[in-house]
Design a protein that fits this description.
The structure holds two protein chains of two kinds. Chain A is an alpha+beta fold. In chain A, 39% of the residues lie in helices and 16% in strands. Chain A has helices spanning 2-11, 37-46, 102-112, 207-211, 219-223, 231-246, 252-280, 284-305, 325-350, 353-359, 367-372, 377-381, 389-392, 413-437, 488-499, 507-514, 519-522, and strands spanning 17-18, 28-31, 50-58, 66-74, 77-85, 91-93, 116-118, 166-171, 183-189, 192-199, 314-315, 318-319, 455-461, 466-473, 479-485. In chain A, a hairpin with a 5-residue loop joins strand 14 (466-473) and strand 15 (479-485). In chain A, helix 7 (252-280) runs antiparallel to helix 8 (284-305), helix 7 runs antiparallel to helix 16 and helix 15 packs antiparallel against helix 16. The radius of gyration of chain A is 23 Å and the shape is globular. Chain A starts with a helix and ends with a helix. The model of chain A has no long low-confidence stretch (mean pLDDT 91). Chain B is of the alpha/beta class. Chain B has a single domain (2-165), classed as Rossmann fold, CATH 3.40.50.12280. Chain B is 31% helix and 15% strand. In chain B, strand 4 (88-92), helix 4 (100-109) and strand 5 (115-119) form a beta-alpha-beta unit. The longest helix of chain B has 10 residues, at 2-11. Chain B is globular, with a radius of gyration of 17 Å. Classes of the chains: A alpha+beta, B alpha/beta. The interface between A and B is large, with 58 and 49 residues.
């Protein structure tokens, strides 16, 4: 895609320089002057690129000032645009007019790093609650992680709706079910929702700051706990980012085992999700049947790999557990049984008119909005966007495994269920392929430390969608910054749009069909 | 409908006797409960679960004890939406600064006798997240804890046995 780079270079008038620190080399990285930051966004928007992440780094240890980064995806190409701002004037031009997802990214940057997006229309803090001191910017190097912040008085300005018959329903942070905490505020007239505003940040545990005190080797344990349900995908993404920086070549068997874990995680979570969606439409039968199937998978995981969610089994340099011939045979038998039983349940799902009535045309997330919000993962694929890193930016071993990506265009709850159904079938096929073609050899290799200032990047398709890790090495082989972008960071905006015009009782159904992570978003 | 019924009969009863838990993972503090309370709660326990900052891993295992295989309802264990009805609060995760108030309020809303179970390594001692500007550390830093169940995440049999053990008469 040199053409993309050429167009961008000509738009920028030759003022951009290539960033030599960025690995892998397939990711284009440019440093532009501050005033060209938006020009680059404009040119990329014209080229139909998606904004995948935007973040800031404190570069005190690396020469001072802050780095502002925006990462774009254009077809199969990832592109990182960086600009530098000084400590005295930490302002940068906001991308919000070009890209809607910048709305949350920039609020988060200004809350946690104290950089100011000029032109942003909503500067309410995000993740940083009203009882934090306004000048506490935890991601800055001058802020010690152990700081005990005093509690201050403050208020959060909610978006309000006025008029006859308009009322508000506050929900959370402690929800009715066994789920993570978040606050949702509905404005409704009768049963119809006219607006939903989500407020997240309740599970902010300072993960990004925590990375900075861990060694590169230990970081993977934390990455595995960014979102417990996506533990394999997060570990893989962190590991790949580190491996690209150090030039570590993971043995092929290591790569293939990772893919095996990743697909097993996908099946287990999708089974749970489909069951939970049906349960929210009062069809508990499906929940119990599918959770039974899910349990068999988790038990096999524990027996073969030593952990029900295969946590901590992927490490930089490879994997820590192998599979033997009996293990392979066991998985193959298990998958045959699973495929057969799953098929029967899908038939019941299809033939149930009262369920169909609830899931069809509910929570419609149109392809236009999905594109505008740069949505990723299952949600995007149910709304007509063909995005899947296993196909676009195939990390090994997906460069040699063919993946069929299901895409639906109706964007309703049913579409999101159906994408999951198809992905389960596809994952079963992929696992069989992996087991048949698993290369011999070592599963792990040693990994060296990255050189200072180098930057690593990885995009991995977890079961929710594209996960991005961006690592920056500090001056003394320390992590200077680890940026984590869970798919939830972009997809939460989608839920607010999908719910408009629906009735209040359909919210749990829509929310479950999105099933975004709170922990992965709040960090 | 016929397919649903057929599937139910084909499945039969999926519930299994629970495997023996690893005793090292469960630590029960000195609980002051009257004999009557113990006897009543042993077969009818209502739990309010609060995620105070977990990564969602522990929640998946709590879902698992509700599935037909572990079937916690056979022991009279039920999860409720309101802390007012709850006998026990099951807390996961290190308590994040942003959840501290919500956790306190949930605890205060419960009627006595109230039991607090810290579930998972993070709830027991802060785990990998430790104590920082955003995390208060273990649950006992915020509310008094009666039972600690460790594991990352704890396996379903540890969770179930840990809860049931409280009510075994000594």
């Amino acid at each position: 895609m040199t053409t993309l780079l050429e167009t961008l270079m000509s738009e920028l008038g030759g003022e951009a320089v290539a960033n030599k620190h960025q690995y892998p080399r397939t990711v284009i990285s440019l440093i532009v002057p501050k005033d060209k930051f938006v020009v680059a966004a404009k040119a990329l928007k014209k080229a139909d690129a998606f904004l995948t992440a935007e973040w800031a780094t404190d570069e005190t240890m690396l020469g001072g000032g802050f780095g502002i980064y925006a990462c774009y995806r254009c077809d199969a190409q990832y592109l990182v645009v960086k600009t530098k701002v000084s400590e005295d004037d930490p302002t940068f031009p906001s991308l919000i007019k070009k890209y809607v997802p910048a709305y949350r990214f920039e609020r988060q940057m200004s809350s946690l790093m104290g950089v100011i997006p000029v032109g942003h229309t909503d500067m309410r803090p995000w993740i940083k609650f009203e009882n934090w001191p306004p000048d506490a910017w935890p991601l800055r190097k001058s802020f010690a992680a152990s700081t005990l912040m005093p509690s201050v008085q403050g208020d959060y300005q909610w978006i309000r709706a006025y008029g006859e018959g308009v009322y508000e329903i506050p929900v959370g942070p402690v929800h009715a079910g066994i789920i993570e905490p978040g606050h949702f505020r509905f404005q409704a007239v009768g049963e119809n929702i006219i607006n939903l505003e989500a407020r997240l940040g309740y599970v902010h545990k300072g993960i990004e700051k925590r990375f900075e005190v861990l060694s590169f080797q230990d970081g993977v344990r934390l990455a595995a706990r960014v979102s417990g349900d996506t533990t394999v995908a997060h570990s893989i993404a962190y590991s790949i980012a580190l491996e690209t920086m150090t030039g570590c070549r993971v043995p092929q068997r290591g790569h293939w085992l990772r893919a095996l874990f990743l697909e097993r995680e996908r099946i287990a979570n999708h089974l749970g999700d489909i069951g939970a969606i049906c349960n929210d439409a009062a069809f508990a039968f499906m929940l119990y049947q599918l959770s039974r199937l899910k349990e068999t998978l988790l038990r096999t995981n524990r027996k073969l790999f030593g952990h029900r969610f295969i946590m901590d089994r992927v490490v930089p340099g490879g994997c820590t557990v192998d599979i033997d011939t009996e293990g392979k045979a066991e998985i193959l038998v298990e998958l045959d049984v699973l495929a057969k039983q799953f098929q029967r349940l899908v038939r019941i799902y299809e033939e149930n008119p009262s369920l169909e009535d609830r899931v069809r045309d509910t929570g419609v997330f149109t392809p236009e909005i999905a594109k505008e919000l740069c949505t990723v993962g299952v949600v995007a694929r149910a709304s007509g966007l063909k995005v899947d890193c296993r196909v676009h930016q195939p990390f090994p071993p997906y460069d040699s495994i063919e993946v069929k990506v299901p895409v639906l265009i109706s964007g309703d709850v049913h579409a999101r269920v159906w994408v999951r159904v198809k992905e389960i079938r596809e994952s079963i096929r992929i696992i069989k392929h992996i087991l048949e073609n698993l290369p011999d050899g070592a599963i792990r290799t040693d990994i060296s430390m990255p050189i200072s200032e180098s930057e690593g990047f990885a995009a991995v398709e977890g079961w929710r969608g594209e996960i991005i890790y961006w690592l920056q090495a500090g001056a003394d082989a320390q992590i200077n910054r680890c940026m984590v972008r869970d798919p939830s960071s972009v997809n939460w905006l989608g839920l607010e749009q999908a719910i408009k015009g629906n009735i209040v009782p359909d919210f749990p159904l829509c929310n479950k069909s999105f099933n975004q992570s709170y922990s992965g978003h709040d960090l | 409908m016929i397919r649903i019924l057929r599937q139910m009969f084909r499945t039969g009863i999926a519930t299994e006797p629970i495997a023996v838990a690893n005793d090292d993972n469960v630590k029960i503090m000195d609980i002051k409960l009257s004999k009557t309370a113990k006897r009543c709660l042993r077969k009818s326990l209502v739990i309010r679960q609060v995620d105070a900052g977990s990564c969602n891993g522990c929640e998946l295992e709590i879902h698992a004890i509700n599935n037909p295989i572990y079937n916690c309802e056979r022991f009279g264990i039920r999860f409720t939406a309101s802390p007012r009805f709850a006998d026990m609060v099951l807390v996961t995760g290190p308590v994040s600064r942003n959840m501290e108030v919500a956790l306190r309020r949930t605890y205060n809303a419960m009627a006595t006798p109230k039991l607090v179970v810290a579930l998972g390594d993070c709830a027991c001692n802060g785990g990998i997240f430790g104590e920082s500007y955003a995390s208060c550390g273990g649950v006992d830093k915020v509310i008094p804890v009666d039972v600690y169940i460790s594991g990352c995440p704890p396996v379903p049999e540890d969770i179930l046995q840990g809860i049931l053990k409280i009510f075994i008469p000594k």
